[in-house]
Amino acid sequence: MKIVHSWLRDLAALPDDSEAISFALSDIGLAVESVEKVGATVAGVITARVIKTQRHPDAAKVHRVFLDNGDGTEHHVWCGAFNMQAGDIIPWATPGTTMPDGRLIETKPIVGIPSEGMCCSARELGLGDDHEGILIMDPATPLGVPYGQALGLAEEIVYDIDVLRNRPDAYGHIGVARDLAARFKVPFIQSVPTLAVTGDSRSAPVEIVAGDRCARFTTIIISGIRITQSPDWMVSRLAAAGMRSINNVVDVSNYVMLETNQPNHAYDFETLGGGGFKIRLAAEGEKITTLDGVERVLTADDLLICDATNRPIGIAGIMGGQNTEISPQTTVVALETAWFEPIAVMQSVARMNLRSEASARNERGMDPFGIDISIARFVELLRVTCPDLVVHQGMVDERSESIPPPKSIYVRPARVSALLGKTFSASQITDFLVPLGFSCQQAGADFWVTVPSWRPDCTLEIDIVEEVARHFGYDNLGKTVPKSTQPGGLSVIQHRRRRLHEILLGLGFNEAMPHPFLTDGDLSNAGLPDVAVRLVNPLVVGDDVLRTSLRPGLLKAIAFNESHRRTGVSFYEIGHVYPTSSDILPDESEALGVVIAGSDAPQAVAVWRELATAMGWGARLDQSQVPSGLHPTRSATLSAGKDVVGAVGEIHPDVLDAYNITQRVAVLELNLSRLLAIEPKVAQWKPTSRYPSSDIDLAFTVPTSVTAEKIEKALRQTAGVLLVDLTLFDVYRGKDASDSRSLAFRLRLQAHDRTLTDADVATVREKCIAGATKLGAQLR
Amino acid sequence: MIVDINAARAAAEQSIANALTIDELRQLDTELLGKKSPLALLKNGLGKLATVDEKKAAGQALNEAMSAVEFTLAQRRALLGRAERNVQLSAEALDLTEHFAVAGRGKSHIVTQAWQRLEDVFVGLGFQVAEGPEVETDWYNFEALNMPPSHPARSMHDTFYVDHGQPGSTVLRTHTSPVQIRVMQNVAPPIYMIMPGRVFRNETTDATHLAVFHQIEGLVIDRGITLADLAGTIEAFTQAFFGAGFTSRLRPSYFPFTEPSAEFDIRTPKGDWLELGGCGMVHPNVLRAGGLDPEEWSGFAFGFGIDRMAKERHGVGDVREMYTNDIRFIEQF
Question: What pTM does this model have?
Fold first, then answer.
C-alpha cells in the first residue's frame, strides 16, 4: 500500500521528517518496505526558447543552439541532439547544475567557443526513457521558470507499507494518519465535509436480496457533471499512490478510496436499467463482462450487483461491469457505496482470481459507518472540477440485519500489565486508546472499551493489550529472560538419532535430502507397491505422491550424480515416509535409507552390522524373504520377532534400469520409528585375559546352499568358551561357476586362567572342523 | 706380565677401533672379553706368578684393562649405533606431500547442520525438543491455532491438501505450530520447548523460496510470562547463536495464533537489520485449544526458517541448490 507523505500531513499534524515517520510506521506495525521520492526535479534546470541553431564547420557531431530564457540575454549552448527548431521551448541545465547521474554542468568550450550549460532530454531529467532528443515542451510554457513547475511536477515522498491482515483501516490514508497522530501525540485532523443536498428528489432504489452478504447499500444521485481532467495536484497524488489519472469522476472515486479507505462506484445513471439496484447471488454459470473487458463466469456463491431490471452490472465488492461505465457523455451518476461481507468477497476473489483495489479492501472488512463521510468527500472533491454539480435529495440507505454491531470489550489493567510485564494504569491505557478512536468507560478498577467501527480486528481483551503494546512501543517494554525450572536437553530418541547421524557420517556416507513428493510411477519403478497418499493440489502436475519409502528419492540422487559423471557415491537419508492408513492421519513414520553406488549387497550388510552393534539393535537376516524391488538373490529382510524392521541387499537390476543407473547399488532401509525406540543395552565390562591368545585360521569349501552365517554359528558353538573372536576374512569363488565357494575364518582363542597349550588349540580346531563338516563344509 | 696385559689391551682397543658395524662389535665382545680372550687367558695365568705383589699388580692391571676394553666397546657401540640409525633415517626419507586421501567422512547436509546448531543453542538456554507429524489435520494446523474454517489468515498459507479422510481435513503442515498444540495437550506446563521440522507451502519455488523447507519454533508456557520475556529470550538466543555483537528487536505484526504479535529483526555488529522471524504471546484461543486456561497460564511462541540460516551461513546463492543432492554441492560443506 503506497502512502503519500504530504497526504498524511494533510490529515495529521505530523513532522515533515520522512525518516521519523518511516521509523514510527514500522514501530506501530505498519512495516515500511521502501521509502521513495517521486516527481523529484533537478534544481537549476529552467525553461528556455530556442532562438536559432547553427552548424559549425569544425564540429560535425554537435551544433550551436542559441537560447532565450527571458532575461534579455542570448545564451549559447553546444548540443549533440538535432531535434529542436527555432521557437521550441526546452529544459536548459544552467552552469552549476548537478544532474541526477551526478554530472556537474560547467561552461566548457568546444573549438574555442564556450558552452553555457546543456539542453536536456526527458531521460536526463528522470522523466522517462526517451533520450532520442531534447525534451520539447508546450509552446505556451513561460520562460525562465523551473521545468518542474512548468510541467506541474510535485515532489512526493511515498512509503510503501505492508498492511497486515488485521488492519483493514490502514488501507486508507486516514487510518494510517490516525495511527501516526496517536504515536506522535499530535492532533488528527480529518475534515468532515457536510453534504449539501440541493437538487430535487431523484433516487436509485435498492433491493437487497442476499442480506447476509450485503449489510448496507447506499445510492445517491449527482447531476450536472462534466467529464474532464482532474486538477494537477490530484493527478500528482494519485500517481504517487500508484494510480493513473482517467477522468475527474473516476479520479475522485479513487482518491476518496485511497483517503477514506471506502471503495465506491459511480454508475452512469442514464445507462442504469430501471434506475435502481438489486443485490443478489449469481445463478450458477451466470456471466458478466467486467471493466477489464474479461467475461467472468460466476457461481451461486458470488454476489452480483444488478440494475433494477435484474441485469448484472457488477461483481459486488470486486469489480464493476463494462455496461454502466462512465463515458465522456456522462452527466448524471448514481454513486454506490456499500458494505459487503468480507469472507465471502475473499472467497469470490480466490475463486475468480480477480483482484482489485476495491476487493483488497472489501475482503478485509470495511467500516460500515464510514460510508457517509466518503460520500460527502466524493461530492466535495468532484465539485472542484464540476462547480455546477447538484446532489439530489432521495439518498437511499438500505441496510440488512448483518451489519456488524458495535463491540464493547471489558479490559482489566491488571491483565494488560501482567501480559506486557510493565504496570499500566487505567488512565495510561485510556490515553493510548482514545486517540485511536476507542472510547473508554470506567468500571471499578477495570473499564469497558467501545471499539470504533473501522477496527473489526478488535474483539477481545487481548486485542486491546496489543494496542497498548503497539503504542507504548515494543522496544520500551524491556527484555527479561524467564527462568526455566526444567533442564534443557534432547530426548533419548533425539540423542539416538544424533548418534546414528554421526556413525553414518563416520562411515563415509553423505547426507541427502530428496523431495518428499514423488512423481507418478516412481514407486512402481522402484519395485514398490503403487499405493500412496496423494496431494489434492500439487505444485507441479504429477508430483502428487507422498513417499512411502525413501528409496525413490535416493535412487534419483544416485542417477543425478551418475549423469554428472559421479559414480560410486553413497548417501543416507533420515526422513519421514507417509504410507496410507485408515486412521485420521497417514501412517507416518521415520525411516533410514542408505544407498551405496558401485557396491554389492554384503557391503550393505556390513553397514547394518556396524549400526546394529553401535546402536544396540538386533534383527534376523532373513534371506528367504526378498523385499520387493530388491535383487532376488542378493537381498534379505531384517526381522525382529514377527515384525519387519528393514531390508538389506542390492537394488533389483530392473529398478536400476528404470532409474537409469548403470552401477550396482547396495541398499539398507530401516524403520527408525521402531529401532530408535529401542533402549540399547549398556555394554558390560568383560575382563581381558592376562594370558596370550592363539589364532587358528580355517578355510572351508562350503556348498552355496549353506550360508556363511550357519558355518559361523557352528564354529562358535563348537569352539566353546575359549573363543574370544571370530571373523570371516576371505571369500573365494572359483572362476568356473560352481555350487560352492571357499570361506576363510580366523578364530582367536584365549583362556582367563592359563596359557593355552598346543593340545588345547588342537582340540578346539578338531571340534570346529567336525562342526563345520557336519554342515557339508570341507576343510581346504 | 704387565707388558703382555698392556699389549693385549692395546690390541683389543685397536680392533674395537677398527670395527665398522654393530655386528662386528658383537663378535669382538666375545673375542676380547670372553673366556678364550687374550685377557681371560692372562687372567688364568695369574696363579703362576711368583710373588703376592706381582699377583696384585698384575690383577689390578688386568681389571683395569678389562674395564677399559668394556668401556671402549660400549663407546664404539654407541657411536656405530648412532651412525647406523642415521643411515636408516636418511634411507627412510619421504615426501609428505605424496599422500593419498583417507576414505573420508561423509558430509552432513547443511540444513541438518543448522538444525543441530540451533537445537544445541536452545538446549543451552533450557529448552527441550518436541516433534510432530508432517501430515496434519486441518484442526491442528489451522483451527486450534485460532484459524477457524474460512478465517482470512488462512489465505496467508498456501496449503497443500492431502487426499486422506474427509475432503479438506488433512494437510501438509504449513508451519511447525501444530506441534505447539500437541505439546500443550501432552505436557503439563511449565513448557520450554522448541519444535524444529519440515514444513510445506504450495508456492512456486525460486532462489529464495521453497515449497518444502524447515522451520524451528519455540514455545514457552508458564505462570506470569510476559512480552518482555519474549523479547529477552529472542535477545538471549540472538547473542548465543549469532554472537555477542548482535542484538534483536521486536516490531508489531499479525499472526492469528499470537497476540500481541511481532516480527523479530536482528542487528549485525555492522548495524544492518535482518528480518528473522515471527513471534508473539500465545493467543488465549490457542491456549484453550491446547487445554490450558489463559487466566492461569501465559506464554510466547516464536519461529523462523532453518534453511535460511544455512543459506546465509554458507552464502548459498540459490536455496534450490541445497536440495539437488548433487554430490558436488554436498561435498563442499
Answer: 0.84
